[in-house]
Amino acid sequence: MSEIILIAGVLNISISLILLRKAGVVLAFILAWWFFWMFISSLSLTGLFRPTSETYLLYILMLSSVTLGVGLHIFSLRVSGNQSILVISSIDEESAASKERFILRIMYFILFPIVLFFSFKAVYLLCTSVAPVDYRADVFGLRTGQSVLFGSTKINFLYGLLISPMLLASLFIGVAFYLTKGNGKIFTLACILVGLDAFMMFGRFGFHYIVMIGIIVISIKLTHDWKNTLSGFSWRTIIVLLLILLPVFLVGYLRENKASLAYERLLKLFVIDYHTMSFSMFDVELQNPLSIVHQTTYGRSSFAGLERPIAFISKFFGIRIEPQADVIGSYLHEYKTIGQGANGNAIKYNAFGSLMFSLYRDGGPFFIGLMGILFGFFVSKTSISIERKNTYGVSILMSLFFIGIYGIFQPVLNGPILLAILFIFLIFKVNLKHFGFVKGNV
């Protein structure tokens, strides 16, 4: 299958670039990301089970459907005379300034106080009572049933329901303001907040977000104005990027048994296994007739990130709904054998079910193809926003980029990303002049 994966990858990336040209850099990056790690997984370099051909064909179906969605969008533009079916309207300078002030006030008066409080508490806990190797588990209450960081499940839940989506939304909006207005203030502050959030949770993904967003921002700038972008590059820029990347490995080092974390294991675990295990895990689930992946949920799994707040509100009316995000999360938390090491021992991992887990559970190959087409359509539509300096469109594009990149690690739509997109929609579509606190300078 390795050759087929390579051929499919080259074809899909080439077609997307031909259709979108310079605007296709984001989509090409997403496609290259998936096909590259799919190809690596087919080599079984670390002992993970090599997925079956049928499983790989499902992934190729999804990615080819994304390319088809791009083609449908371009076709719709030509048929309608460049009159888009769904308009992503831009905003004027006055409105942009108003929204920037609004976002900065949210960051200064809501996000920073909350995130800083829990960050200082994390430092205190690490220095006094919790060993680094146990801290991550204790944050989520895996050993005691209660989070040492948040203190109660309600606070933990509300943080995930409100603060986490707002952090992501501020990051995506920050990128949009930087690329369209040349203003990096929101972007810089959002990176600091996301980094602090990752530290206090002792997670690597927050730092990973910053690195990947930084890479795609540089890629976009190189594509559209490579001379000025290269002229602005310096050793200081490279050092900053390396300093951002360092916490990814440092946190992983502290979370692991230090004696066993040799260089070879570091490469195997953090680089290869973490990026390829979801392919093996999804294949194992497909082959298991008792797996919940075969329980059709007709969209609830893919939109589970929106179902959770609905379930929370419904409790006040005496209606109890079990969110599919909790069902999937609990199921994937169980360790499963997905490979065999060189010493003959079973390789067991948990939690790394990809986006495909949710898509397949909602309707099999048909739903995978349908969602792939929709994703490709909207990535194509919002990619044009870069050249048009459309801040709202670029914010949505960065959200889709996030889904495209992190869908390889987990059922990403079960997390805060859908609520983040909802926040972006509200920020850009609500008339902020009705809010008195957006007036004046920040």
TrEMBL record:
Residue stretches spanning the membrane: 7-36, 56-75, 106-126, 157-179, 186-218, 233-254, 363-380, 392-409
Signal peptide, first to last residue: none
The entry's keywords: Membrane, Transmembrane, Transmembrane helix
Superkingdom, taxonomy of origin: Bacteria
Entry coiled-coil feature ranges: none
Alphabetical list of NCBIfam families matching this protein: glyco_rpt_poly (TIGR04370)
Protein name listed in UniProt: Oligosaccharide repeat unit polymerase
Organism of provenance: Leptospira inadai serovar Lyme str. 10
